[in-house]
Every structure is written in structure tokens, then in C-alpha cells.
Write a structure and sequence with these properties.
The chain is α+β, with helices and mostly antiparallel strands. It contains 13 helices and 22 strands.
């Protein structure tokens, strides 16, 4: 008897889940309400699609395990993505000072537009599996609180019921999973939102001649000064372009959409490196602004009983402040958990869906802790405020980051957690704690750690007179 799996949503989480399901299901149908572009173009339904996206090493490693016969890292690099080693390819000003650059590269992340990444992943899955995509809007889940049996959908030909042996909701930030579960008699879903009121503003520039190897430049927001957060970054993307993304929290930190004010904002950051770089670069687009940036979590792993044959992944499970670059990697890690359980137990394994939901919650919890523990310090944050435990954790984390500005062992621990190759417990290993308590053996950097060649590039681009 043919076994069918249905995935709701054709974004990154949905296509990776479909790839995992393709190894055990006879038919995998992905349902999406949007018309999907034929190339690397922006699509509806992705409010953050035009802004900076970082695929961390942990997320990329998970993707490598999911699409049969394809190295997703090589595939994305061939499509135009850039590989950035955290240890040597990034110039970053943290609230505790400039991070040094080391000869050892550390974990690597990929940078490109979200449009390119979604298109490349979708193409790899469709070309190497039997997955098919249908345009349709899901109305509800069918089945009972014990087991999901399919979906009811609305398509061009009208409403219909699509039976399935397994269903994955990867429909993103706007998922109706809580309503759908209520329709099955499950109405005890706990949710939480922590919203710093972050606004993103992004503009694309032509990479100036001779600046193609300039490191990713980042000025991070400082949550600890009682003022609205303000940050900015310049990252290389496909097509010989720079993506310049600014972010600021409510109460006066919001970046503007006006091009002249956009440049002024970059120059008023704690260090003007972003503004100095783009002052001599050719803009290619207008400024795009987005406000869909809150941290929102659905604690589905705590729902009892959890219905068999249903898993929720990606932004449908949790969204994070995009400033921390975790969402895509969390989606990939969740899809890998699904793939691993499917290989062990198959579509019909009893308790499989609940096990996947619990395992997916681990990477969600790590990302949630990293994002929320900083966002609660910004003035005007809604849904959370720092408590005694937060103050203790923050004091240690700030000291560790300050140590990382001049200590390779501390910096290595920081990269591992940032890249999601390991969890936050990495920061509590004895070697990391000892390094943190000892402090940085090297003095703080007086300015951005640039090579002489990079300083000449910056000087040549600078039109600000600084």
C-alpha cells in the first residue's frame, strides 16, 4: 500500500523535511499557498526574506545529511553563496570590544540572499527526490487527538481532503497549528512572545572593485546600557554584491528607510566602519524595512497527548529575533532529527512524532535562550524582563565575551555556540570557565582588526572624511 507524507510549506524547513520523508515515503507532497519563483527571487510569505540571513555551521552540517546524493555546502557555494570562517573572516565589534581574528579559521558560515538559499535547496530536493509541490491552502488537519490522518485543503479545483500517513507543518511564522490542534481537541498549547520591537532595514550595494575579499563587518547592538539597541553589518552575497542590514529596537533605535538617513545611521553606530565602507559603494536597491522580528515560541513538546503522525518544525515551532542568525539552522537541525527518527522507526513508528517534537525542542531552547537572554535587556521589550538568573548568566556571558576578545580558547567556545555546532553547555566546560575567570591574555584591540591591505580598501572607499 502506497505511503504518502504531506508537508505544509515549501520554505527551507518544509523542503528539508520533505527530503527527510522522501527516504521512507512512497509519495511526498509539499503544499504551499504561494506561487514559487523559478529562480532566486524574493517570494511572498517571507517578511524577513530581503534581510541578512546566516547559515551557521551546525545548520549546514544538518542539511548535508538530508538531501540524497547532494553536498548542500558545495551546491550553495556553486550557486553563489560565500563561506565565512568565524575566526578569521569576520570583523565584529561586540558590546565588550572587538573580537580578534586568528590564524585558525574556526567554524564556517554561509552568506547569501534568502531567495538564493531557498531556490537552491528547493531545486536540490526536487531534482534528487520524488517530492512534488502543489499550490494549495491548508484549512485544517484531519484525524483525532490520537492520530493525524491528513489535511483538508483549498486549491484551484475546490476544497478536498488529502489523506496522509504523516504530516509536517512547516508553514512558517504565520502557522495556524494552534487552531488546527484545537480542531482535534487539543487546546492546551503554551505560547510565549518576547518582543524587543526590532526593525530591520536593508539595502544592496555593488561590491566595490578590489573589495571582494573584505571581511564581513559587523557592529553589534549593546543591550546593557539602558538605551535602544542599534546594529549594522556588511556581508558579501552572490552576484558581486554587499548586503547591508541595519537593526534597531523600539524607542529610538529603529533604522530609517530614507537612503540619506540610512547612511547617517551607519555612521552613528558605536564604530562607523559600516558607513565608511558603503559611503563609497554603489547602491543597487532602495531600503527595505521589516518589523516581523519578535521571538515567539510554541511549547509543543509539552502537549500531552501529542498526536501520532504529526510534526511541527521551523518557524511554525519557534521564531527568533533575526539579529542572531539562528532561524535557518534551527529549521535544519529539526529536519535532521526528523530524518534520524524516520530511519530508525519508519513513518508508522509508535511515538515517533512525539520523540521528534522533543528532540527538535533542544535546538529551539538553545536558540531561544541565546536570543531572549539579550533581548530582555533592551528598554521597551515586551513579554520578558531580566530576573535574578538572567543577571547571573549575563554577568558570566559578558565576562566570557570580554575574554574572547583576547583569548583563543574563549573565542573558540563562543564560535562553537554561535555556529550551533554545540549547545550553550560548551560555555561551562572547565577549560572555558578557567579561561573566562583568568581574563584575556591579550590587551583589547584599539580598533577594527584589519590587515594593512584592508585598511587601504577602507580608506579608499571612505567618503565621510573620518
Amino acid at each position: 500500500m502506497s505511503r504518502r507524507a504531506v508537508v505544509i510549506g515549501a520554505g527551507l524547513a518544509g523542503m528539508l523535511a520533505a527530503a527527510a520523508l522522501s527516504t521512507v515515503a512512497d509519495e511526498v507532497v509539499v503544499l504551499d499557498r504561494d506561487d514559487l519563483p523559478d529562480g532566486p527571487e524574493h517570494r511572498r510569505g517571507l517578511p524577513q526574506g530581503r534581510h541578512a540571513h546566516l547559515l551557521m555551521a551546525g545548520g549546514l552540517a544538518s542539511m548535508e545529511d538530508l538531501v540524497p546524493g547532494v553536498s548542500m555546502g558545495k551546491h550553495l557555494l556553486a550557486a553563489g553563496a560565500h563561506e565565512i570562517p568565524l575566526g578569521s573572516g569576520m570583523v565584529a565589534l561586540t558590546p565588550e570590544g572587538w573580537l580578534r581574528r586568528w590564524r585558525r579559521p574556526g567554524p564556517r558560515m554561509l552568506t547569501c540572499t534568502r531567495a538564493l538559499l531557498d531556490w537552491a535547496v528547493r531545486g536540490a530536493v526536487l531534482d534528487n527526490t520524488g517530492v512534488v509541490i502543489r499550490k494549495a491552502r491548508v484549512l485544517e488537519l484531519t484525524g483525532s487527538r490520537e492520530r493525524v490522518t491528513g489535511v483538508r485543503l483549498s486549491a484551484a479545483a475546490g476544497d478536498e481532503e488529502l489523506p496522509a500517513d504523516f504530516v509536517v507543518d512547516a508553514s512558517g511564522r504565520g502557522s495556524r497549528i494552534v487552531t488546527w490542534l484545537a480542531g482535534l481537541g487539543i487546546d492546551d498549547v503554551r505560547e510565549k512572545t518576547v518582543d524587543a520591537g526590532l526593525v530591520n532595514a536593508t539595502r544592496l550595494y555593488r561590491t566595490p572593485e578590489g573589495a571582494g575579499r573584505f571581511p564581513l563587518a559587523m557592529v553589534q547592538a549593546d543591550p546593557y546600557q539602558g538605551r535602544p539597541g542599534r546594529s549594522g553589518m556588511v556581508l558579501p552575497i552572490e552576484g558581486d554584491r554587499w548586503m547591508v542590514s541595519l537593526a534597531g529596537t523600539r524607542g529610538g533605535g529603529e533604522p530609517p528607510s530614507d537612503p540619506d538617513a540610512f547612511l547617517r545611521y551607519t555612521l552613528d553606530l558605536p564604530d562607523p566602519i559600516v558607513g565608511r565602507l558603503i559611503s563609497g559603494a554603489q547602491p543597487l536597491t532602495d531600503v527595505h524595512v521589516s518589523r516581523s522580528t519578535s521571538n515567539h515560541r510554541r511549547y509543543l513538546e509539552r502537549v500531552r497527548p501529542w498526536p501520532e503522525r504529526l510534526v511541527v518544525l521551523g518557524d511554525a515551532l519557534a521564531t527568533f529575533n533575526p539579529a542572531y542568525g539562528q532561524g535557518m539552522s534551527v529549521a535544519a537541525l529539526g529536519a535532521r532529527e526528523l530524518g534520524g527518527e524516520l530511519r530508525r522507526a519508519g513513518l508508522a513508528g509508535p511515538g515517533l512524532a512525539r520523540r521528534v517534537q522533543r528532540r527538535a525542542a533542544r535546538s529551539v531552547q538553545a536558540a531561544w535562550t541565546m536570543a531572549v537572554s539579550q533581548d530582555v535587556w533592551f528598554p521597551g521589550t515586551r513579554g520578558g524582563s531580566p530576573g535574578a538568573a538572567d543577571r547571573l548568566v549575563t554577568a558570566y556571558t559578558r565576562r566570557m565575551i570580554r575574554t574572547a576578545t583576547g583569548s583563543y580558547p574563549a573565542a573558540s567556545a563562543l564560535w562553537d555556540v554561535m555556529s550551533m555546532t554545540t549547545g550553550p553547555a560548551r560555555l561551562l566546560r572547565p577549560s572555558t570557565v578557567l579561561a573566562t575567570l583568568s581574563g584575556p591574555p591579550l590587551p583589547p584591540a584599539a580598533g577594527a582588526p584589519l590587515t594593512q591591505e584592508e585598511r587601504e580598501i577602507l580608506k579608499g572607499l571612505d567618503r565621510t572624511g573620518r
